[in-house]
Amino acid sequence: MQDLAANPSRYVATVEELLTLAARAPSGTNIQPWKVRVVAGEARDRLCAAILEALDRDGQAAHRREWNYYPENWREPFLARRRKIGWDLYGLLGIRKGDFEGTERQRRRNFEFFGAPVGFIFTLDEDLEIGSWLDLGIFIGTLAIAARGRGLDTYPQAAFADFHAVIRRELGIPQNEVVICGMALGHADPAAVENRLVTERAPPSEFATFAGFQTQ
User: Is the backbone peptide bond immediately before 77 cis, with ω within 30 degrees of 0?
Assistant: First the structure.
């Protein structure tokens, strides 16, 4: 991603506007459970440096998220979809199977917000139930759409959840909040080869049924 500007603090009003729009997302009984930490400038740089330092010191295996994003036992069609997007992305990047150094180099870019100058960290109180997780997902999706409406691009990143302990320390997040994910905000670099990737999506015929509609 390209920088918003040399001084991202100039865009604080834009970020506040995007969050205001996202806060209109549907929320069960209007509890609005989402919490957001926004980082830019030196705060962003410190957070990225702390995560990468922890990764270098401890290794990935020492850092695991507090919740499961993916199923423990993969099955079709999900396994094939997951593999294909990995092959497609890494193919564009020239990372071949078995290229562990290239894979690690690309993975580390997550923790630099892929070069974006503004990052979000999303959390929820740990005592909230699955409905609040759904609310947060709708909120994040709404935030991404609002950003596109302002000519900006986003990249949601579950990888940040693995480093919840580091993030808590750096951003002062209490233990009773669960670190869900992060998201990058900036301008997509049109020259970056990975931005040529267009993910395949299943047509409605594969995931939807229709009842009660009259056909001609």
Answer: yes
Query: How far is it, in rounded angstroms, from Cα 198 to Cα 92?
Result: 11
Is 79 part of a structural domain of the chain? no
**Cα torsion angle, 24, 31, 171, 49, sign:** negative
For residue 56, tell me if it sits in a domain.
yes
CB 44 within 8 A of CB 7: no
Tell me, what's the pLDDT at 37? 98
In a domain, 49, yes or no: yes
Which residue range forms the structural domain that includes residue 122? 8-69+109-189
Domains of the chain: total: 1
SS (H, E, C) 162-186: HHHHHHHHHHCCCCCEEEEEEEEEE
Q: How confident is the model at residue 197 (pLDDT cuts 50, 70, 90)?
A: very high
Q: Which of 205, 8, 21 is closest to 113 using CA atoms?
A: 8
30 Rama class: left (phi>0) / alpha (psi -120 to 50) / beta = left
Say whether pLDDT at 192 is over 80.
Answer: yes
Q: In what order do the strands lie in the sheet with 153-157?
A: 35-40, 118-125, 177-186, 153-157
Q: Does the predicted TM-score (pTM) go above 0.90?
A: yes
User: CATH no. for residue 156?
Assistant: 3.40.109.10
Is 20 inside a domain boundary?
yes
What phi and psi, each to the nearest 5 degrees, are found at residue 99? Answer: -85, 80
